[in-house]
Design a protein that fits this description.
six-stranded antiparallel β-sheet, mainly beta, 24 strands, nucleotide-binding, seven-stranded mixed β-barrel, Cyclophilin-like_dom_sf
């Protein structure tokens, strides 16, 4: 069982949990850019939190199902539609043989996650199904999905009708605040230049991808050059090269680098950046390591609450209507649930 990719979209990749334990060999961790959306998408269909999903950027794919399955869509709202009819985010849907999932266009955020009950049947490479396309590693043949690809799904038994309570649905804003911890090379900047980072508003440039986000704004100067002896780079590291514009390293970052890192975005806030687009604004707020741990514990506690408080429902009546409004025809689904 599985689905065929009718239209690939802009960048549709199979991404799940990161590839842990291989950076020492030069293999990037990869994995989903938006940890929260990945985990919630999987919980909605009864999967392990880090099961692989389709991560789609800006223009979502069009896929046709060959067997009955269950799906959920989270993250950025790219206008999901089932058989041409708009459907909701953050809830599960039963799809049948011949059904088509497509997307009408970006509304907010930029990365959407499509989960499939039972999971995607691709090989586990170095402990992960995630794609690192630059090395043709993992995912579907080590690359983004293309028109005509047939992707296998594991068989899913039973029916799950789940919906995420609204209080857990994040809002994707065009101006975001990222909490950061100083270091490890903050001593290569004087106090005035460190304050520039905290007081400035930066723009996300067109040079933003799964490897890193280059920002533009007031330049940050080093005390004595930008170069260091190359060391490890974490997800969210903020490098400052010689030109003075910060670069935030993302999921497909290189494993080591030789530019000074002034700070690191805390992991809980990385989903905001994953959903940000060129032209969006970024502010930084400093927290210490102890506060970051408290924030992380609260985040994991929220995931635990979602697991235990996920709303379930039963569709007891479903009808499809055609509506003509001002000469334009619309299809709509009306469901009675309990």
């Amino acid at each position: 069982m599985g689905f065929t990719v009718l239209k690939k979209g802009l960048l549709s990749l199979i991404q799940g949990g990161p590839r842990v334990g291989f950076q020492q060999y030069g293999v990037p961790a990869s994995g989903a850019m938006d940890d929260y959306s990945l985990r919630v998408a999987n919980l909605l269909v009864g999967n392990d939190e880090y099961e692989a999903c389709i991560e789609a950027l800006i223009v979502g794919p069009s896929i046709k199902f060959h067997e009955k399955s269950i799906i959920a869509i989270t993250g950025g709202d790219l206008g999901p539609m089932l058989n041409g009819i708009e459907i909701d985010m953050y809830r599960s849907y039963i799809v049948n043989k011949g059904d088509t999932l497509s997307f009408s266009g970006m509304k907010n955020g930029c990365r959407t996650y499509i989960s499939f009950g039972g999971g995607i049947d691709v090989p586990i490479v170095m402990g992960s199904k995630s794609t690192y396309a630059k090395a043709n590693l993992g995912g579907y043949k080590g690359r983004e999905l293309k028109d005509g690809d047939y992707v296998n799904l594991f068989k899913f038994e039973g029916n799950i009708n789940s919906i995420l309570p609204k209080k857990y649905i994040p809002k994707h804003e065009s101006e975001i605040t990222l909490r950061i911890i100083r270091g490890p090379q903050d001593d290569m900047f004087d106090k005035d230049n460190i304050q520039i980072l905290f007081k400035s508003i930066y723009d996300i440039t067109n040079e933003c991808d799964r490897m890193g986000y280059r920002l533009s704004g007031e330049k940050i100067n080093h005390i004595n050059g930008a170069d260091i002896v190359s060391d490890g780079i974490a997800f969210g590291s903020i490098q400052v090269p010689g030109h003075g514009n910060p670069i935030i390293m993302m999921a497909d970052r290189q494993t080591v680098g030789g530019y000074a890192k002034i700070a690191n975005v805390i992991s809980v806030d990385l989903y905001k950046l994953a959903q940000a687009k060129p032209g969006d604004k970024v502010r930084f707020k400093e927290v210490d390591i102890y506060e970051s741990h408290r924030i992380f514990k609260k985040y994991e506690h929220t995931i635990d609450k979602i697991k235990s408080n996920m709303k379930t429902f039963e569709v007891i009546n479903k009808k499809t209507y055609s509506i003509n409004l001002n000469g334009i025809k619309y299809d709509a689904i009306c469901e009675e649930i309990r």
